[in-house]
Amino acid sequence: MIFIRREILFKIQQLVWRTCRMYQAKGNITGQQYLKNSLQSYQFASNLQFNERINDLKEKGQKIFHLGFGQSPFPVPTHAEQVLKENAGRAEYFPVKGILELRKAIIDFHAKQDGLHQFTQENCVVGPGSKELIFLLMSVIGGDVLLLSPTWTTYKPQAVLSNHKVFIIPTSYDEHWKLTPAMIEKVYSENTIKENSLLIFCNPDNPTGSSYTKDELIALGSEMRKRKMLVLSDEIYGRLSFNDNHLSLAQFYPEGTILSCGISKWASCGGWRLGYHLYPSHLKDICNVVAGAASNTYTSASAPIQLAAVSLLKYDERSQNYVKHCKRILHTVATFCCKKLSSCGVKVHSPSSGYYIFPDFEVIRAQLKKRGITTGTGMCDALLEEAGIALMSGGPAYLHPLDQLTVRLCYINFDGTKALKASEAIGLGEHLPESFVETECSETYQAINLLHNWVEKQKKL
Ligand SMILES: Cc1ncc(COP(=O)(O)O)c(C=O)c1O
After folding, report:
1. The ligand 1 atom nearest the CA atom of 275
2. What CATH number was assigned to the domain covering residues 46-70+318-459?
3. Which atom belonging to ligand 1 lies closest to the Cα atom of 132?
4. Does position 168 have pLDDT exceeding 90, yes or no?
């Protein structure tokens, strides 16, 4: 009996092996056949891919001025680094939504800094980066996703991954790339958009550096209210507002705004991976389903990082002074870049926060055309080859047309540790001297001068 069973088993094994070998020989087993049709050509995040490509070239010895990646140049605030070191041994799983101490600090932080009093710790979710939380939110909502053009590179790929229909709202240079009530009106009147859709709003904006004024937010809030819109307001650059005048959409449209924020930008902790979302209490159902999704995917944000984040979000004098220095430096560098680029005819709006400008090189379109270059990507390839400047085209990756000669320029390729030290030595009572960019942020200074000269050279063609 046992003998027969073994024989049958052996025959089955033989059959399986033979079938596998036959499939392999024919090359029949492919990854593609297991993928969803909609994701057959799904790609790596364009900004991260670009960064890795440029870093590879740099490692191979190529001298490149990298103006294509949005990562803080500054060191992590020392007091937070210290707390992280002290808690390196904390290896337990923390509560899914985040430890209470951290959620309390977050609520307090936004109440004090943004005047937002509607949020409570119950409706706060901490995660491994706000990016992950945006994705989880998209994964649980039922409707479509509305995005601006241009916009940050990640939103659309996340919407595709979570199977949503995407509607694009074009903005324009003349309106500082900002959303207006008329644009909302237009997209709704020209399309059939589901009632339970989500608009992603980024303020201050990546990639354009624009921020919204009080009047603009009031007008948007009233249009959103009329339509009962659900809005994710991504305010990750809010604390870096150069003139300290960041205003949250959640002040003007509290009932429909989910606030997305984190420590990656103002506290230079991108690689720590900690972000959070705040939901108005009557949207707690969404919050709880997102937390459910979190519990079944990442469990909780890293324990030592949560403890270190408390020390940042308590926002004592050390955090505040750190931010004051960082944004003063960023403002000075941004002003220099805009002035220099405007002087050779490049169209650019001065940013009000963050790391980015979105210049338009229309001024050299005719000359580039003579060289056979008609797209932003073509222009960026030429810039890399001829001037050693790495810039990401502001085209399709930003949901912007291919033929636009816009780029997203990250003016943060300088040595932030050096610049921060120099700024601290000057003190907060003084202005930074005009020479600061040249002496303390020399990589950006050189890159922008090279870019300026390259444009001037094209103009003579
Ligand atoms: C507009 C915007 N939102 C969100 C994020 C993601 O930040 P986090 O590090 O919290 O995932 C980034 C990072 O580049 C960003 O630019």
Report:
1. 10
2. 3.90.1150.10
3. 11
4. yes
